[in-house]
Amino acid sequence: DAATLRSELEQLPPSLKRPLLARLDKIVKRVKAALEIEDPLLRASNMTILLSSIEWIKLLYNYYSGGDLSPYVTSLVLSINEGWSVYNSIVSAFYLASAEESLELARQLWERSPEASLYLLAQASIHRLVADYWSIDEAGIDVDSLERLAMDVVTEAGHTWSYASIIVSETRLATMTMDAASIAYQLAKAYLSSEDYLPALMHGLRALSLAEKAIDELTIMQAGKEKGKRLLDYIKGLALYYTSSVPSQASTLPILLIGEGEASSDVSTSLLDYRYALNIARVLQESSLEARLKNFKYIEFSSLTTAIIVLILILVVRVILDLYEKARPARKS
Question: Fewer CB atoms < 10 Å away: N or C end of the chain?
Answer without folding.
Answer: C
